[in-house]
Amino acid sequence: MRRIIKSVLDRTPDISVVGEAQDPLEAREAIKALNPDVVTLDIEMPRMNGLEFLEKIMRLRPTPVIMVSSLTVSGAETTIRALEIGAVDCVAKPEAGERDLFHSLPDKIRAAAKTKVGSLADRLRDRADDRPTAPNKTFRTDGSVLAIGSSTGGVEALTAILSCFPANCPPTVITQHMPPLFTRSFAERLNRLCAPTVAEASDGAQLLDGHVYIAPGSLTHHLEVVGTGRLRCRLRQAEAVNGHCPSVDVLFHSVAKAAGAGAVGIILTGMGRDGAAGLLAMRQAGARTLGQDAASSLVYGMPKVAHEVGAVERQVPLRRMGNEILQLTNTATDTPPCLSPQASK
């Protein structure tokens, strides 16, 4: 894998491989000596697993890390945990016979080099400060459909937002850029952590209150919302849009058409411009729209472009995003259902 990764990156003029290591003990010394901008880290290594080593990096020498994982259930589960600990992004190991080896890695490295990576201690302290109170029992959905798009940094952002949703939250559809199989593990983890029911979207699934539908990681299908009256999920086979399949733009355009002013659109941290045009279509159709602000975005790319084209009604820090969403979709007039000490100031 090291040879393959180096070969791919050596063909990229603006990226230099400054060192290699066969295990975490070698890597520790190499990181100290070479001070790299970005580290690619395999989950499966001798002498210490990648997750344990990542925790040490994030505690002692915070550095942007991209996890390299096998396309297995255990590999996906470990990668999701790594993204929660502080890894910036992940890339799947190529399967036998795959020609386009690590095609997305150079772009992921460029984005990672620009990220703001804090120590694990800081991240844990911030999460404790922002922990929401229990959802207000008087929450009543106003019938809105909630659509969210995210990419790099989205695992942490989505976890923060959905963890303060009540069990009867508005029907929520999400496209998060992530390799196949990883989205299933992510959905299962969110389902254990959050009050609503969270699952990968299936073709034909009806949108229901208290349910969150995550677009399956795919190279062939996009998640859309379709129907009149009773809305449902559709997995449509099509080419990549903005280099992504599933694409946030495809989801947002479909929500604009199916739900119009009865929708709320959210664009979160991520690289590139996927979602900007679709969110603009949602706003033009009467939907309310929010974008994550620069300070709280791991990569202020997708929200920035959406803001620049006029798709974003307001920019909101991540610590307030869950509360802002629930205020937009709650018909109750008393205390908002999701409040944290910091967000209430």
TrEMBL record:
Q: Spell out the molecular function terms from Gene Ontology.
A: phosphorelay response regulator activity; protein-glutamate methylesterase activity; protein-glutamine glutaminase activity
Per the UniProt entry, the Enzyme Commission number(s) are 3.1.1.61, 3.5.1.44
Q: Which GO terms describe its cellular component?
A: cytoplasm
- UniProt keyword terms in alphabetical order: Chemotaxis, Cytoplasm, Hydrolase, Phosphoprotein
Q: Which residues form the active site?
A: 151, 177, 274
List modified residues, type 4-aspartylphosphate.
42
This protein's source sits in the domain of life called: Bacteria
* Residue span(s) of domain Response regulatory: 1-108
Please give the catalytic activity noted in the UniProt record.
Answer: L-glutaminyl-[protein] + H2O = L-glutamyl-[protein] + NH4(+); [protein]-L-glutamate 5-O-methyl ester + H2O = L-glutamyl-[protein] + methanol + H(+)
Q: Which Gene3D superfamilies match?
A: 3.40.50.2300, Methylesterase CheB, C-terminal domain
- Spell out the subcellular localization from the entry: Cytoplasm
- Tell me the ranges covered by the CheB-type methylesterase domain, including all copies: 139-332
Question: Which GO BP terms, alphabetically?
Answer: chemotaxis
Q: What is its main location?
A: cytoplasm
Matching entries from Pfam families are given as: CheB_methylest, Response_reg
**Which InterPro entries did the record assign?**
CheB-like (IPR008248), CheB_C (IPR035909), CheY-like_superfamily (IPR011006), Sig_transdc_resp-reg_Me-estase (IPR000673), Sig_transdc_resp-reg_receiver (IPR001789)
Modifications made to the protein after synthesis: Phosphorylated by CheA. Phosphorylation of the N-terminal regulatory domain activates the methylesterase activity.
Q: What's noted about domains in the record? A: Contains a C-terminal catalytic domain, and an N-terminal region which modulates catalytic activity.
Family assignment? Answer: Belongs to the CheB family.
What does this chain do? Involved in chemotaxis. Part of a chemotaxis signal transduction system that modulates chemotaxis in response to various stimuli. Catalyzes the demethylation of specific methylglutamate residues introduced into the chemoreceptors (methyl-accepting chemotaxis proteins or MCP) by CheR. Also mediates the irreversible deamidation of specific glutamine residues to glutamic acid.
Protein name per UniProt = Protein-glutamate methylesterase/protein-glutamine glutaminase
**Organism encoding this protein:** Lichenifustis flavocetrariae
The protein's gene is named cheB
